[in-house]
Amino acid sequence: MNPNSMTPVDWAKRPILEKYADFSGRAPRAEYWWYTLAIVIAFVVLSIVEGIIGIKGMVFGVYGPLTCLLWLATIVPGIAVGIRRLHDTNRSGWWILLPVVPYALAMILGGPAILAGGLGAGLGIAALFLLIGFVCAILLIVFLVMPGTPGDNRYGPNPYGEGAGTVPAE
What residue spans define the domains of the chain? Predict the structure, then answer.
């Protein structure tokens, strides 16, 4: 399909229907952000439905089974479209892990520090890494919002085509 004639719904469906586990190539802003909006809306709707039929909170006391199934179905395309979006900005897909590392360190180092040095020391270490993770998450969002590199880059050709400007859905 011609990227210049795609609607927001077409962009939102593309990561699931056409590029489910495709971690190579590039994803323009329209593909990433319309997909993200569609997923957020789907989670909100399913959460409301689970609350109405009384199954919300069945999994870990917080989530419903339908939202868990949706999460399982969309985790791979979500990571894939995020990596392709970073490729569009000429960055490695490994940047997607940027906020994950400090959050993991907060859990790994904070717990033992609480046990060894008391609550204050453990919470201080955990809070420091959580703050670093928050800053890293904001940086990742900035990378995802930035326009893609014009023309070809090391990850592939321009997803909008040769000499294309912006598209209506972006």
Answer: 8-90, 96-147
